[in-house]
Structure formats: C-alpha cells, structure tokens
C-alpha cells in the first residue's frame, strides 16, 4: 500500500513537469523523476483537479470562520499543504496529515532538509514525540495506522484537532485498502464527532466489468487489494454508505462526469493540447472506474458543478432485449499474432480473413505489429497462420487505426493509419494476393505490399477514419470520412477515391453535414454509407446515425432516427444484414454496463440492445479497438483482437478470437 503512494507521487510529478498542473513542490517531495505516458498524465491530472476543486470550495465557503482545519488521511508525499500555504490560502486553516509512521518520518526528513519546504512550515516547526512526528504553526504530520481508530483519535487529540470547527476530511484512494468494517467506522466517527464537516473521497468503482477485472487483478498482484469494491461497487452504493453513517448530504460523480461538468471548457482545451494523445478508450474507461464524492454535515457541500453542462449519458439502466452467447476460439489461443488492438481484419475471399497492423504481442514482446495473419476455414475447420509478406520494406504494414478495403479477389487497399500519434498519418498501400490461393493452409498465403506514398492524397493522411465502398453512376468509389490527423484532432471532411486512379473525385453532396468525428463505424448500404456513433470534437461519444444516400446527381446526408435513441458510443464495429445495422461493442459513458450488440432496424428505426453472455470465457473480453467479421450464412460474428493499455494497470489483449452467435436475435427481428 505504501508503495502505491510513492508511485502515485512520481506520476503526479511527471504530470506537473509536462504542464498539466502547477506544482513546484511535487518534485521536491517525490524525489525521483520518471517520465510517464500521456494517459497517466491525464489520469493524475483529473485526480489532482478533483481534490483541488473540493479543497478550494471548502476554503471559500468557510472564509468567514475564524478557524478551520483539513485532515488528509493517507496523505503520503502529497504537496497539498505547501501549495495552499504558498498561495496564501491558509490564514486560518491548520492542515493535519496522517500516514504510516515510516512514511511520515521520511516526509519529515525531506521537509527539514529542503529549505523551500521548511520555510513554508515556519521557524516554529519541531519534531514531535509519540504519534505527532512533525509540527509547525499550521501543519501537523502524524504517524498512525488509519485502521486503528482509537489510536488515530488519540493522536489527533494530542495534535490539537478541534472537533467544533469546520473540518474537511480528504481520503484519496486510501479507505479502499482498509477492511470495510474499519473504513466504515472511520466514516461514521467523522460524522458523529464533527458537527460541521465535509468528507472528500476519491476511489475506484465497477469491479466486475472487463476493465474493472483488470484493475482488481493489478492491485491484487501488488498485494494491496481493493476491499471496498465488493460491498460498494458503484457510485450509488458509496452514496448510501455515507448517508447511512451520519452524513446529511452526499454528491458523487464519476470522473467522466467531473471532467465535463466541473472543468471549464478552456481548461479542457488547454489539457488536450499539452501533448499528442490517442488513448481515448482507456482514458474514458479509467474515468468511468473512478469517482469523486463529497459528503457534508452542518455546512454547505463542497461541490459546484458548472451550470447547464450536458454529458452524453443514458438516463436510467440500459434496457436489455436479450443476450448473445460468446464462445472462445480456444484452438487459437496460442497464436500471439491474433492478440492485438487498433488493427483491421477483413474477409479477402470466402472463408479467408486477413488481419493487419495494430499493437499487440509478437514473440513475447508488446510492439506495433509488422506481420499479417490469416484465418482460413477448410473442411469446416479454422486455422491460423502468418502471412508471407513480399516487400522491400516490411515495416510498411506497421500501423494502427488504418482501414483495409477489399476491391477484388486479389487486391485490397490499405488507407491511412499512424505509427505514433505525434507523427503524420501514413498513406496508401496496395495489398496483392493470388486469386487462386487455397485456404487449406493459411501459411501458404502470400501478400505483396506496394507502397503508394508518392501518389498519396491528403485524404489518406489520417487515422481512426472510415473507408467505405460506394457506387455512383455505376462506378466504384471509396468514401473516406472523418478520423484524426497530425494537424486536427477530429476531422469532418470526406473524399471520394476513384478505385482505379486512386485520386479524389468531386461528387456533389447535399444535406446537413454530420458532426466531425473519429472512431465511428461505416457500412455500405444500398449504394451509400451508414455512419454510426464516433467521438466528437469535445471528446464526447456521439449517438447519431447518418446515411449518405445516392441521388441521381450526387449524394445526400440524411439523419436516421432511432427509438429509443442510440446510446452514444465509439470504438465499435458495425455490419449490415437484411436491413438491420449491427453495432458491436465500443465505449460509452453509461458506466453501469458495457456495450454488447445493438441492432437497429433501418426501416422502422427500432433500436435494441443485447448483452454479451461471457460466462464461458475465463478472461475479460474488452470490446473496443477490436475488429469483427460477420459470416451471414452462419449468422455469426467473429471478433478478433481488442483491448488496450489499461491506465497504469497494464496492457490487456483479448486472449483469443471470440464467436458471437446472432442467430436468435436476427431471427427474432
């Protein structure tokens, strides 16, 4: 548990060094400096922002009181006191910090040895005896095990904590490491002993969905299990916990809510512009698995959401129409090349599926995937193999978030994609394969890569876009739409690529232009294109479905109305079958469940959600950054890959391809 505190301090320090927050004291207290990834920076930024938001609120609302106090439980190497003191906000406030005795001793030694810190504590600072390890005019460091409530109470009394003045309790990922009976007792003691108090809690939720299972496993491996999750698995349970233990008001929101409702838009934009970023799924999943709670008693709550900000939530529980069984492809679990995300899988001919690009596992290493893989079915049996690649530069296929469009039995076009999010998008590649290749042995399939970079259209220098076949006046085109580029985080433009010339053609398009987006789905339908969902310019999921419909003189954008309205989502895949749009997985802000299969009737607009039954899978199935292939004769979906970098909990890659049987839900429609 103590090691998690040290790691947290280093991560906050890295975020501050990159400009996410202003805090010159973090480096002095963290000691070691280590550069973290942009996803970690965002995660620790929003954590620090939530705590600061509530602390500043408390100080502002208690300005008229002659004395107030802040009690930080499990404070570790946090810099809160030094920041507040430096900003001149502690004129009448004493800060008490409590942690394990050895942590507090280390912190006291640091403070005494660094003038920039010791000067803020003041000349009167002395080393204490007993539990009070270090004491300044308005700063007290106490070495006590929080789970021993009677010892804590005795130490606080000795340090001069006054139960009659307004008090803010802070527990930032602390109580969850304690047995529930002990943390519950602490929450109740705080409400009973302090007539004017606020309690700020920042912790994890949703332990049983795929991301939650990975999160729990990570903390178990660190020997610091999250005890509160079993009894308090969601925000509502945490709210009931406080209201049932003496607190009179309690507000709680997950961190997606907090980001959009409590952080001004200009600050959101500042944070987004600090460094190249392309881990949206993991960012939103991390935010849906952490919450900030403020409870109060005898005073105003420490909470001020921004007025009239809407977040794309779905009101109430998701109405589930039924379930879809999932079955693992255990025979292929040893094929590491199929464990990847940000890749593409396409049916290049009957019973032959080609998987390209992405980030995954190859030869025991996590890396951008250079090799292509094939799944082929012969005599009713699927086999996997590594493709023989013919190319002077085998790195050409090394890319994420590209598209692959199969144009004939021997030709496919790879469009766009990226290596790192800070580099420019990649251009186009022809993938050539023999027309007559037998699928009986996937290892026999060879693919020739032909680089088209010199002829690359601006249309292709993007990623997280869609490329869909359309027909206009009998001619075949590829409709390239949306995505991201090195210059624009969200694109809303489109191009019609002539499939013979690979040059863009101007075709008239009328109607209301859809909102810019990336990570959406796109399917060919009746000569046009169906676009569904995606992530918009504000980094919020979209719930719109748009049809680009062929007219005599061009195309027209039309909105497809669904009822009930489609729950906003992105990073899903999609297929059309007999007038129905099937959406597979994705990420949404509705934290009580994860997206399964959604079926939209394109004639009536009826929209039905089905949960995926994963009881036969022994590992968490993450349905984002995956690819899927629909086999209409069998009414089955094959999901290949998926997963991502789960914040600081490690990279999760779906273990093997998964079959989803849709026969029941497609027949019942």
From TrEMBL:
Give the reactions, separated by semicolons, that this protein catalyses: 7-[(3S)-(3-amino-3-methoxycarbonyl)propyl]wyosine(37) in tRNA(Phe) + S-adenosyl-L-methionine + CO2 = wybutosine(37) in tRNA(Phe) + S-adenosyl-L-homocysteine + 2 H(+); 7-[(3S)-3-amino-3-carboxypropyl]wyosine(37) in tRNA(Phe) + S-adenosyl-L-methionine = 7-[(3S)-(3-amino-3-methoxycarbonyl)propyl]wyosine(37) in tRNA(Phe) + S-adenosyl-L-homocysteine
Q: One biological-process term from Gene Ontology? A: wybutosine biosynthetic process
Among the Pfam families in the record, one is LCM
Per UniProt, the keywords (alphabetical) are: Methyltransferase, S-adenosyl-L-methionine, Transferase, tRNA processing
Stated EC number for the protein is 2.1.1.290, 2.3.1.231
What InterPro entries would the database entry show? Gal_Oxase/kelch_b-propeller, Kelch-typ_b-propeller, Ppm1/Ppm2/Tcmp, SAM-dependent_MTases_sf
Q: In which pathway does it act?
A: tRNA modification; wybutosine-tRNA(Phe) biosynthesis
Tell me the Gene3D superfamilies matching this sequence.
Kelch-type beta propeller, Vaccinia Virus protein VP39
Highest taxon, organism lineage: Eukaryota
The record ties this protein, via SUPFAM superfamilies, to: Galactose oxidase, central domain (SSF50965), S-adenosyl-L-methionine-dependent methyltransferases (SSF53335)
Provide the GO MF annotations for this entry: tRNA methyltransferase activity
Q: Which family does it belong to?
A: Belongs to the methyltransferase superfamily. LCMT family.
Q: What is this protein called?
A: tRNA wybutosine-synthesizing protein 4
Tell me which species this is from: Campylorhamphus procurvoides
Name of the encoding gene: Lcmt2
């Amino acid at each position: 548990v103590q090691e998690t505190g040290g790691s947290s301090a280093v991560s906050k320090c890295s975020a501050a060094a990159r400009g996410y927050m202003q805090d010159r004291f973090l480096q002095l207290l963290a000691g070691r400096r280590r550069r973290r990834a942009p996803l970690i920076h965002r995660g620790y930024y929003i954590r620090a922002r939530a705590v600061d938001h509530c602390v500043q609120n408390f100080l502002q609302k208690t300005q008229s009181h002659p004395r107030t106090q802040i009690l930080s439980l499990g404070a570790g190497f946090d810099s809160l006191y030094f920041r507040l003191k430096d900003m001149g906000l502690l004129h009448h406030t004493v800060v008490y910090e409590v942690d394990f005795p050895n942590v507090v001793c280390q912190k006291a030694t640091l403070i005494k040895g660094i003038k920039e810190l010791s000067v803020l504590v003041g000349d009167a600072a002395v080393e204490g005896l007993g539990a009070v390890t270090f004491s300044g005019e308005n700063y007290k460091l106490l070495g006590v095990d929080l789970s021993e409530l009677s010892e804590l109470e005795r130490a606080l009394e000795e340090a001069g904590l006054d139960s009659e003045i307004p008090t803010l309790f802070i527990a930032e990922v602390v109580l969850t490491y304690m047995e529930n009976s002990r943390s519950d007792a602490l929450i109740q003691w705080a409400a009973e002993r302090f007539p004017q108090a606020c309690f700020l809690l920042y912790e994890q939720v949703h332990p049983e969905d795929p991301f939650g299972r990975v999160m729990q496993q990570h903390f178990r491996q660190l020997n610091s299990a999250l005890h509160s999750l079993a009894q308090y698995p969601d925000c509502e349970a945490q709210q009931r916990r406080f209201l049932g233990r003496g607190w009179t008001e309690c507000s709680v929101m997950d961190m997606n809510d907090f980001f959009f409702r409590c952080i001004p838009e200009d600050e959101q934009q500042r944070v987004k512009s600090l460094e190249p970023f392309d881990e949206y799924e993991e960012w939103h999943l991390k935010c849906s698995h952490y919450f900030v709670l403020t409870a109060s008693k005898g005073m105003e709550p420490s909470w001020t959401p921004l007025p009239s900000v809407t977040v794309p939530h779905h009101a109430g529980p998701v109405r589930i129409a039924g379930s879809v069984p999932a079955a693992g492809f255990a025979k292929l679990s040893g094929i590491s090349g199929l464990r990847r995300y940000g890749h593409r899988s396409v049916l290049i001919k009957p019973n032959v599926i080609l998987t390209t690009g992405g980030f995954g596992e190859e030869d025991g290493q996590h890396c951008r995937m250079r090799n292509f893989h094939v799944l082929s079915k012969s005599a009713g049996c699927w086999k996997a193999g590594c493709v023989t690649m013919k190319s002077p530069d085998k790195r050409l296929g090394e890319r994420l978030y590209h598209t692959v469009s199969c144009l004939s039995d021997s030709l496919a076009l790879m469009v766009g994609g990226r290596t790192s999010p800070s580099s420019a998008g990649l251009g186009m590649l022809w993938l050539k394969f023999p027309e007559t290749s037998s699928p009986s042995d996937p290892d026999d399939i060879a693919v020739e890569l032909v680089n088209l970079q010199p002829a690359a259209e601006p249309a292709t220098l993007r990623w997280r876009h869609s490329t869909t076949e359309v027909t206009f006046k009998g001619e075949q085109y590829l409709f390239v739409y949306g995505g991201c580029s090195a210059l624009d985080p969200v694109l809303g433009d489109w191009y019609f690529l002539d499939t013979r010339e690979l040059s863009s053609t101007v075709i008239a398009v009328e109607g209301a232009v859809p909102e810019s987006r990336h990570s959406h789905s796109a399917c060919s339908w009746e000569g046009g294109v169906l676009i569904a969902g995606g992530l918009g310019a504000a980094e919020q999921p979209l719930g719109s479905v748009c049809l680009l419909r062929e007219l005599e003189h061009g195309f027209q954008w039309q909105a497809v109305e669904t009822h009930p309205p489609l729950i906003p989502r992105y990073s899903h895949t999609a297929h059309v079958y007999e007038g129905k749009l099937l959406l597979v997985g994705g990420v949404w802000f509705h934290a009580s469940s994860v997206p399964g299969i959604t079926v939209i009737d394109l004639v009536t607009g009826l929209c039905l959600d089905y949960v995926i039954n994963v009881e036969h899978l022994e590992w968490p199935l993450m349905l984002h950054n995956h690819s899927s292939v629909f086999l209409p004769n069998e009414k089955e979906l094959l999901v290949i890959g998926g997963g991502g970098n789960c914040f600081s909990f490690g990279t999760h890659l779906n273990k093997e391809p998964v079959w989803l049987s849709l026969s029941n839900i497609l027949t019942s429609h």
